[in-house]
Hints:
Blueprint: H1 14-28, H2 34-50, H3 56-71, E1 75-79, H4 81-86, H5 88-97, E2 101-104, H6 111-123, E3 138-139, E4 149-150, E5 160-162, H7 168-176, E6 180-184, H8 191-195, E7 198-200, H9 204-218, H10 223-231, H11 235-255
Parallel strand pairs: 1-2, 1-5, 5-6, 6-7
Antiparallel strand pairs: 3-4
Helix pairs in contact: 1-2, 3-9, 3-10, 3-11, 5-9
The protein binds ligand PTJ.
Amino acid sequence: MGVRLKIPKNHVRAASLYIREKLVEGEECGVVTKSGLIAHGRGEAFDYLIGEETIAPALFATRAAAAALLTASHPVISVNGNTAALVPKEIVKLSEEVPADLEVNLFYRSRKREIAVRDALIRAGAKRVLGVGRCASARIPELFSERRRVDPRGIYSADVVLVPLEDGDRTMALKKMGKLVITIDLNPLSRTAQTADITIVDNIIRAVPNITSAVREMKGLGRASLNEVLRNYNNRLNISSTLIHLRDRLTRLAEDV
Ligand code: PTJ
């Protein structure tokens, strides 16, 4: 997918416009659902509030996420339309670095979209993509959206699942199945952010390469050190630090007049 809109390089919002354009093109070719465009707008608003940069609590959560992925016996990365449009190459790179399985999982599932998302991942270098067509034959109990359909070789049997830009119901259902859930969500107050075991409040554009770097850096650590990173991580406290960061930033901005 190449971006068609000519965005002047010196435009103050060039990076943000470029990301939007990727999503619009993703929608046009069937990867992104229309609601995905709305979801992105919500994310952008929160990104403005945090300052469009990776903040310290996000980096702390990133290290915990890397430790969880590296200590997992079966880690799986769940890929929806927005993820496939925004960070196809980066998510494939992360899956190779861990290594973790990649599985298509869509809220608005249709045969056409699951194939479009799978193909976007394959074009980005993925060798194997789970969760497409009849392969999504298992069901997450107590979940009634299309997200319940999962691959028995993937999310269904995973112990650690990364679910970027997710909805709250599946996060809860996956936790009830005993899985450790990692999410990337710019809204620290969303149900997913509040329910996950590890919440990275950051833009997926920055978060995925950061997790890959952390995985690469922490690979050399022994299991005991990785477990220690996980033991020292408390998601509630980390979300609290995120909200405090937001509050302090807004206070500084409000006073700076
Ligand atoms: O591709 P599908 O069919 O699986 O549908 C995907 C969407 C995203 C439409 C679906 O999962 C959905 O409706 O999600 P929600 O409930 O709108 O939640 C998406 C969350 O992601 C919101 O809390 C947004 O703030 C957040 N978000 C949006 N864009 C980004 C983001 N978080 C990180 N990086 C972003 N770029």
